[in-house]
Write a structure and sequence with these properties.
Blueprint (H helix, E strand, L loop, with lengths): L3 H7 L9 H10 L6 H18 L1 H7 L7 H12 L2 E6 L5 H15 L4 E6 L2 H18 L4 H5 L14 E3 L5 E6 L11 E5 L6 H8 L28 E6 L7 H14 L4 E6 L1 H6 L5 H9 L5 H7 L15 H5 L2 E3 L6 H4 L5 H4 L7 E8 L11 E10 L6 E11 L4 H14 L4 E5 L4 H8 L3 E3 L4 E3 L2 E3 L6 H4 L8 E7 L3 H16 L3 E4 L2 H8 L3 H4 L3 H22 L2 E3 L6 E3 L7 H21 L12 H4 L6
Parallel strand pairs: 1-6, 1-7, 2-4, 2-5, 5-6, 8-17, 9-12, 11-17, 12-16, 15-16
Antiparallel strand pairs: 3-4, 9-10, 10-11, 13-14, 18-19
Helix pairs in contact: 2-3, 3-4, 5-6, 6-7, 17-18, 20-24
C-alpha cells in the first residue's frame, strides 16, 4: 500500500471525492504522540478508507490498470450497493470487470470470501483461469501479483479452482447445483444467472451468505456485539437479457422496484453501443452481422440490445413451450461436415431399427419473393415402447435462397442419402411442383459421381398434374406430396402445437449451450471460422425456427386456426417442420389403426376452444 507521506502528496488531487480528510485532520492533531509505526498505520487506514470509497481510483493507482468510464461507475456501485444486477451485451467484458472487482475487494478488505457460481462450472472458472491472469499481465505496477498467494491454478480440470490472497481473502468457483453446499461467502457472484435454477439460488447459493466478514476491529470492546458495525454481504448478478418467462426477468423487476424505493439495489443494462463507443468491439463487424439475411433478430435484441423478449398475446406458439423441448445435444450432419468431426459421439448418424427419417421441404425459387427461402428439415421419428407412437427429433435444418429447381432437387437427393432418409415431404403446389418435376428424373451428381434414381409421390402418384412428370421407366415411391389449403394449414398448426405441448417433439439445444462443449474440443479449435460455422449452423437454424414460430400470430376465424407472420418476417422453417410433423402423424394413424370415434375428453383445451364442429 502507499505510504502515509504519499497520501499527503496526493491529498489535494482527490479532495472533492470523499469526506475522509476531516477524519485525517483529527488524526494529525494527536499524531505527535504516536510512534512511527502507528503513524504509518494511520496512513494505511486513511488510504484504505479512501480506496474503498473509490475502487476505480484504486484500480488505476495501485494496480496500474486503465479503466473505462462505464467500468468506473459499475465498480463504484458494486462496492457500495448490497445487490448489483448487470445485464451486459456480448463483448462488453462483464467477466473481466467482475474479476477486477473481486481482486479489489479481496485486497482492500482482508479475509473476504468470494464464491463465483455458474450454471456450468467452466463458465465461472473463466474469472479465475482467464480474467485474473489477464489482469496480472496488464497491471503496470505489478502489485496485483504481489497480493496473491502462490500461483493461480490455471488447469480447467481442477476440482477446486480458486485464488488465495496473502491477507486471507479468497475466490472460489462452484457449480450451481445441490452439491455446492457447505461453502461460505461474503460476496456471491452469479455468472450467467439466467441459466441457474431459481430454487438452487434460493435454497443453496444464497445460504452461503450466512455470516458477515469478521475484521479484527470487531474484537475491540467499543465495536463488540454492535450490529451497526457488521458489514453487509453482497450479491452480484451477471447475465445477458433473455426471455421474459425466465426467472431473470422477475429478478430484474425486483431490482428495479427496490432501486426506485431507495434501497441499496442497482440494476443496469448496457447495450452493444457502449462496447462500440469504448472500442471494445468492432463497429463494422457488428454492422455486417446486422445486415445478414439470416440474422437471429430475437437473439440480437436479447444479447446485444439487452432487451427481454416476450411473445405477443396473439402468439400461437409460446416461447416457454419451445424452450422446454430443447434437449437434443448434437445434430446429424451431412457428408461434407461429418468429415470435419473427430469426436465419434458427435459424428454418429447411425439409424435405429425402429426409426424413420423424413426430409421435409418448403420450396422457394430463383426470382421469387426476396423474403422467401427454401428450407430442408431433417426429422427423425422413433417408435415408443408400445410401438403405437413416434417421438420426433428435429436434427438438422438447411435454408437457401435463389436456387434453380434442378439445383434444389440435387441438394434434396444429397441430403436424403447423407441422412439415410426414408421419405421426402414436399408441397406440390406453387414452387414445389418444379422441384418435383426434377425429382422424377434421373439426376447425375457431378461432384459426387453418383446417379440418383427418380422418386415419385407415394400418396398422389395418379394425380394428373403429377403423373405428367412420370416419364421414366423405374421409380421409387418416396415423396409424400401435400396440397396446402386453409383447412390443411389449420390441421398442421394444431398438430404441431399438440406435439410441442405434450413434448413429443424435440429441438436442438441453444448454440450458446453447445459452444462451451465444442470449445473444449481440440479438433474444433483447429478448424477455420468457416468450418466452425458449418458445425454450429444447425443450432442457429433451430433458433431461427423458434423465432419464426413465436412471431406467428393467430388471426380470428370461426372454423380454422389461421397463422400470419409479421410484416417482413418469414415462416419457411415453420412450414417445413409442420409439413414433416403432419406426415409423421399420418404414419402414426397406421400404427394405431384409424378410429372413427373421437373422445372429446382427450382433445386439448386449445383445440376445443376453436369452436370446431366435431
Amino acid at each position: 500500500m502507499a505510504s502515509y507521506s504519499n497520501y499527503q502528496v496526493k491529498r489535494n488531487k482527490h479532495k472533492n471525492t470523499v469526506g475522509v480528510y476531516d477524519k485525517q485532520r483529527k488524526y494529525n492533531k494527536s499524531s505527535d504522540n504516536l510512534t512511527k509505526s502507528e503513524k504509518l498505520m494511520q496512513g494505511v487506514a486513511a488510504w484504505a478508507s479512501f480506496y474503498i470509497s473509490r475502487p476505480d481510483i484504486f484500480a488505476e493507482e495501485y494496480l496500474g490498470l486503465s479503466i473505462k468510464p462505464f467500468q468506473k461507475v459499475l465498480l463504484y456501485v458494486m462496492m457500495h450497493y448490497n445487490y448489483t444486477s448487470f445485464f451486459a451485451s456480448r463483448g462488453l467484458g462483464k467477466s473481466y470487470l467482475t474479476a477486477l472487482f473481486c481482486v479489489i475487494i479481496c485486497i482492500l478488505k482482508p479475509g473476504t470470501k468470494i464464491v463465483v457460481a455458474a450454471g456450468q462450472k467452466s463458465q465461472g472458472m473463466k474469472i479465475v483461469t482467464e480474467k485474473i491472469p489477464e489482469l496480472i499481465s496488464q497491471s503496470k505496477t505489478g502489485m496485483l501479483r504481489r497480493e496473491i498467494k502462490g500461483s493461480i491454478r490455471t488447469s480447467m480440470n481442477t476440482d477446486d479452482p480458486n485464488v488465495e490472497f496473502l491477507n486471507g481473502s479468497w475466490i472460489k468457483v462452484v457449480a450451481a447445483t445441490d452439491g455446492a453446499r457447505s461453502a461460505r461467502a461474503n460476496l456471491l457472484i452469479l455468472d450467467e444467472f439466467r441459466m441457474i435454477k431459481p430454487n438452487i439460488y434460493k435454497n443453496v447459493l444464497r445460504r452461503f451468505l450466512a455470516a458477515s466478514r469478521q475484521p479484527r476491529y470487531l474484537d475491540k470492546p467499543e465495536y463488540k456485539n454492535k450490529q451497526e458495525y457488521l458489514e453487509r454481504n453482497k450479491e452480484i448478478f451477471l447475465t445477458s437479457a433473455y426471455y421474459k418467462f425466465n426467472w431473470s426477468y422477475e429478478r430484474y423487476k425486483v431490482f428495479v422496484k427496490a432501486m426506485l424505493n431507495g434501497r441499496k439495489y442497482f440494476v443496469c443494462g448496457l447495450p452493444y453501443q457502449i462496447a462500440i463507443k469504448e472500442n471494445l468491439t468492432n463497429r463494422e463487424q457488428l454492422l455486417d452481422e446486422l445486415s445478414e439475411d439470416d440474422i437471429d433478430e430475437i437473439g440480437w435484441a436479447m444479447e446485444m440490445d439487452t432487451l427481454f423478449f416476450g411473445e405477443s398475446e396473439k402468439a400461437y406458439f409460446k416461447t416457454e413451450e419451445l424452450q422446454g423441448i430443447k434437449v437434443i445435444q448434437f445434430p446429424f450432419y451431412k457428408k461434407e461436415v461429418q468429415s470435419l468431426i473427430k469426436n465419434k459421439k458427435i459424428a454418429n448418424n447411425k439409424k435405429g431399427d425402429n426409426e424413420i427419417r423424413i426430409l421435409s421441404c418448403d420450396i422457394a425459387l430463383l426470382g421469387g419473393d426476396a423474403n422467401d427461402s427454401s428450407v430442408f428439415t431433417l426429422i427423425s421419428a422413433k417408435k415408443n415402447k408400445n410401438g403405437n407412437r413416434y417421438k420426433r427429433e428435429v436434427l438438422n435444418i438447411e435454408s437457401h435462397q435463389g436456387l434453380h429447381p434442378e439445383t434444389q432437387a440435387l441438394m434434396i437427393r444429397r441430403l436424403f442419402d447423407d441422412f439415410d432418409c426414408d421419405y421426402i415431404v414436399l408441397d406440390r403446389q406453387g414452387n414445389g411442383i418444379s422441384v418435383y418435376a426434377y425429382l422424377c428424373r434421373k439426376l447425375y451428381d457431378n461432384e459426387r459421381k453418383v446417379e440418383y434414381q427418380p422418386f415419385i409421390s407415394l400418396n398422389e402418384k395418379d394425380e394428373p398434374k403429377l403423373s405428367a412428370f412420370h416419364t421414366e421407366d423405374d421409380y421409387e415411391e418416396k415423396i409424400y406430396t401435400v396440397s396446402a389449403s386453409e383447412e390443411f394449414n389449420s390441421d398442421i398448426a394444431i398438430d404441431l402445437k399438440e406435439k410441442i405441448v405434450n413434448k413429443r417433439i424435440s429441438f436442438l439445444i441453444s448454440k450458446s449451450d453447445v459452444r462451451e462443449h465444442l470449445f473444449d474440443e481440440t479438433w474444433f479449435n483447429k478448424l477455420s471460422p468457416e468450418e466452425q460455422i458449418m458445425l454450429l449452423n444447425p443450432y442457429l437454424q433451430t433458433t431461427l425456427l423458434e423465432n419464426e414460430m413465436v412471431l406467428l400470430e393467430r388471426i380470428d376465424h370461426n372454423r380454422f386456426v389461421k397463422l400470419k407472420e409479421q410484416s417482413g418476417k418469414r415462416k419457411d422453417r415453420y412450414t417445413s417442420l409442420a409439413y414433416g410433423n403432419y406426415f409423421i402423424s399420418s404414419l402414426e394413424k397406421d400404427l394405431q389403426g384409424r378410429k372413427d370415434d373421437v373422445d372429446i375428453n382427450s382433445i386439448p383445451t386449445y383445440v376445443t376452444s376453436l369452436n370446431i364442429s366435431l
